Sequence to fold (360 residues):
Amino acid sequence: MTIYLLVAFLLSTLCGFIFTPLILDFCKKKRLYDIPNERKVHKNAVPRLGGISFLPSMFLAFTLVIAVLGIRHEQTVTVNMWSISFMLGLTIIYCTGIIDDLIGLNATTKFAAQIVAACLLPAMSLYINNLYGLFGIYEIPVYVGMPLTVFLIVLITNAFNLIDGIDGLASGLALIALGGFLVYFTSYNVYAYTYSVIIAGMMGAVVAFMYFNTFGNVERNTKIFMGDSGSLSLGFFLGVLAIKCTMDNTRVWESRPEALLVAMTLLFLPTIDVARVTLYRLLHHRPIFSADKNHIHHKLMQAGLTQHQTLIAILLLDVLFIAFNFVTYSYLPSTVILIADIALFSAAVAGINLRIKSKA
Fold:
């Protein structure tokens, strides 16, 4: 199976390297740029449609690999209602992002599209039905699990959209999370063909984008941002993976007491940051969709780090949370681990704030 995952990854990466220069030329011709302002970090106008390459690259790689598997009679691919709802919801989010990148959409419209896309999953009976002991709660009823699922998918979708503020950050965090889900799914030999291949395909598309985003040059027309088409799609994609990982369904895989903690761990940093910023806006009576410079990457740069230093610091912090949770899982209940994660993140933000004040 490993060879097929590698092929999917490499094919998608190749597609990304082919599609992105075409997108760059299109943006230059149509003058589709992300214009800098007082809230944004970049100083030059940069094309913003890099995320358009994600789904085509992923699906081309996925289709080819699955076709080869079928021809070799190594796997029969079945399409169920979960898969249909996933693909339909992802398409809605992807198209919403493209429209926003091209002509602009208000926050309410984007939020409504996210809710519609998220509702497709519980409508097809894919929802969180077990908290695995978090805060002493195990099985939860449908009327709790369904709205909780919609809430979490929308939260994760917006988390990746809002944390996409510096080069490589949203894509780097997504790549770490995708890699974690891929390892977890294949370790249980579940979704080993379909979902593992599609995750590997998405990883390839993200790697290709990161090259142009992080190492591209504006003057040479090789630098690009992912835009909402990319950040919203990545967030929704990872939100669905989190729900699939968490749902307790013994027909698919055995009961797993660590399931919820795995999903929480892989997506902790972007979601806790957007939750912190949202709480800050509510406490200060500001609109929750208003733009500001209160995200962790903004704070690290205000503390004196460069953009690349900030990227490395946040990715290392994400890896440290994953390592901490992995090591402590054998000794501590998930509730204690989550509280410890929140406390550690809060302490890190408090330390950054002190550094900013000392510079003032």
Summary: Residues 104 and 171 are 22 Å apart (CA to CA). The longest helix spans residues 2-30.
